[in-house]
Amino acid sequence: MKNTLVIDLEAEKQEILKRYRALLRACKPTMQRGDKKEIRKAFDMALESHKDMRRKSGEPYIYHPIAVAQIAAEEIGLGTTSIVCALLHDVVEDTDMTLEDIEREFGKKTAKIIDGLTKISGVFDYNSSLQAENFRKMLLTLADDVRVILIKLADRLHNMRTMDFMPRQKQLKIASETIYLYAPLAHRLGLYVIKSELEDLSMKYLEPDTYKYIATQLNEKKAERNLFIKRFVEPITEMLTEQGLKYDIFGRPKSIHSIWNKMKKKNIPFEEVYDLFAIRIILDSAPEQEKADSWKAYSIVTDLYRPNPDRLRDWVSSPKGNGYESLHTTVMGPKGQWVEVQIRTQRMNEIAEKGFAAHWKYKESSNDNGLDQWIMKVREMLNNPEANALDFLDDFKMNLFSDEIFIFTPKGALLQLPLGATALDFAFEIHTDVGAKCIGAKVNHKLVPLSHRLQNGDQVEIITSSKQVPKDDWLNIVVTAKAKSKIKSSLKEEKRKIAEDGKEILERKLKSLKITYNTDNLNKLSYFFKLPSTQELFVGIAQGKIELKDLKEYLAAEKEIENRSSTEHNDNQQIEALLSRVKSPESDTLLIGEDLQKIDYKLAPCCNPIPGDDVFGFVTVSEGIKIHRTNCPNAAQLMANYGYRIVKAKWNSQKQLTFLTGLHIIGIDDVGLINNITKVISNDFKVNMRSITVDTDNGIFDGSIMIYVNDTDHLDKLIETLLEVRGVTAVTRFDT
Length: 736
Known about the structure:
Elements: H1 2-27, H2 35-49, H3 63-74, H4 80-87, H5 91-94, H6 99-106, H7 108-117, H8 130-144, H9 147-161, H10 168-188, H11 192-206, H12 208-220, H13 222-242, E1 247-253, H14 256-266, E2 277-283, H15 290-304, E3 313-314, E4 327-332, E5 338-345, H16 346-362, H17 370-383, H18 389-401, E6 404-408, E7 414-418, H19 423-430, H20 432-436, E8 438-443, E9 446-448, E10 460-464, H21 474-477, H22 481-512, H23 519-528, H24 534-542, H25 548-557, H26 564-582, E11 589-592, E12 601-603, E13 615-619, E14 625-629, H27 635-641, E15 646-651, E16 659-668, H28 673-684, E17 689-697, E18 700-709, H29 712-723, E19 728-734
Parallel strand pairs: 2-5, 11-15, 12-14
Antiparallel strand pairs: 1-2, 3-4, 4-5, 6-7, 8-9, 8-10, 13-14, 13-15, 16-18, 16-19, 17-18
Helix pairs in contact: 1-3, 2-4, 3-4, 3-9, 4-7, 6-7, 7-8, 7-9, 8-17, 8-18, 9-10, 9-11, 10-11, 10-27, 11-12, 12-14, 13-15, 22-24
């Protein structure tokens, strides 16, 4: 036995060296003199530090840092410093090595990047989320060095690729975090290939059945698709060659996640998603010829196939904020099928594939870099951090995925804003003071209110007044994180001033009632008036919402009042107690459908889970445990932000209970259609209906039915039978 172990270790040693050599080959394009020595030093240090560690799959741990470094070099195109950091990214967290050791060996820069990659350790209060704090820490370093995020994305991509051996609960949490934050971040940094892979891998764990179904369908149609692409591009290649253009042309299938998104958005089955692939034309053009060649190729494509006039996207004339340049058009193919065609040059393609890293390479030639502007915005947000990391995270996330619109100032300068931005967002984009004093705007010389949503190409002039101050409801008007955080901090400042006045008034009133003015009594008062903080108490006093008679009432009830701070403590204790009850050694999985006395749980109304759904439990402060579907619209956010409150849950199949769910039915209105539908539900399936709403418009039937079912199998059979009713074209489940 001992002998085989020695052979295994020897084989592993050979494998490690093989992988290390592959990494060096990937680094070759960016290597300078002395770089190989640095990489070797980092590799030796990582090998030594992780020598006794193994991954969940049983492989040596060192495979992971090597793979992350390989992704950073090959797929993102990063240089030596990043490779060194990728090799050492887990050393400080998992071994005795300190940041000081790394700084001594590799210098300040490397130590700073690794610090940004190292998770925050230490105790956190329950109101904040460790994940959010870690993410904020990473962004703080991003403001100085974008490589932190790029290495983190490489780390996350490798973890997602090798997640098969992890427990299901961990898979769900990591996949949720990925879809919630890391995929949008890759999108924002222009790493489209990595973004698509992260989305697909997340979907593989969060929606396994749908993922497998779409993957199988795509596979089955592969030969047919390749034949179609071949026929479609033949005439294009002839004409491109005739015009003397150098090019590469190929078809690539859309990502599984984007196909799923389309199915959900348009509420259509897989068979009806027509643009399952895109044709990409990559031109080999000199820098000064890029624009002309792109439009030349565009005119060739649109001469051969009729374009959809609403689907032209010109990111060559005005690139996206993350530097993405390309011409997209959708044309009608030979078989009456829409086909998306993307036209770009080799330089544009490299920027689209490698995002930020390719930018450095072409930095001199790119005039005004949208990514630099974005990093400046991130820096601004971090300089004005919210008290709550989760707020900050949600604001930040909102600005990651949105498409941009281009807005002109009265003098013709161009500003980029996210889609859906309002006149007020534009005012804050110009300057904080302009935003704070804004009372209205002129869009294309017409007067509009602050909440007016801007369209691409609008010219906007802001009207200000020295008497204006930010209002609470402004937070509902703006969409940019910059405007949100500035409004929040102005409102806080305003509130602080009011609270100062309230504090003096309260002191006088308490004196007249012979109540000592101290922290203890202030906490009790806040709790009595159900206010979250003493500051709110001062504001209430200053605004006259709390008067002397209310304070007298407090005096009378004083004996029954508990201290506010102990309640907060109790909340945390309550969460702790619930978690320890559910996560006890004899059962770390919550069984749903058992006696309710054991543990108090409720089914979440946001997704109405029914038996058979893949579910998890979420520990709340006041409502016990809430059961959500793993594909609930709120699941990714809950798992990404409050991982510690998630508990495993599964259905106990012994009892036949009924659960409420909704069905959306679309069809062609026919005599007796409603009768046939209700007959299937009531007679054939003996299912109770709670409500039915029907709308018919020009012969199209659109109905929603609320019914009680036993589990997902029961529901699936019901949907199958309803689809057989004459006139019914689609039946989908919806969250009530």
